[in-house]
Amino acid sequence: MGTRTSDWLAGYIRAWESKREEDVRALFTDDAEYWFRPDDDCPAVGIEAIVAKWGEPEPSLPVHHLSVLIEDERLGIITGTVDYPGHERYANLWEVWFAPDGRARKFVEWYMTRGGS
């Protein structure tokens, strides 16, 4: 068994690859905030809004190298890269703010583009 954050990351990757609604719902609380950028005017709020955003198409199948950087009982920090072949590469740092049950109550994506593939 992994840590809270590594288990959550494995679920995130599963949901990312499957795009199944039940996989996405398993990651976030009903009232979760999902910040796609830290400077967004407002996040996607609530599981219905998050599920809807996850249904949007991506430019290509992502190739990712992500791992847990640091964590405690309330916050996990994930870092790594995501490459959308033929589109863009990103350096990522993700904040996962946990509810007591291990789902995210707040998720923030920090990223920088690293140029095309």
UniProtKB/TrEMBL annotation:
SUPFAM superfamilies for the chain: NTF2-like
Domain SnoaL-like: 7-66
Listed Pfam families: SnoaL_4
UniProt xrefs under Gene3D superfamilies: 3.10.450.50
Source species, domain of life: Bacteria
Protein name in the entry: SnoaL-like domain-containing protein
Native species: Demequina sediminis
Taxonomy of the source species: Bacteria, Bacillati, Actinomycetota, Actinomycetes, Micrococcales
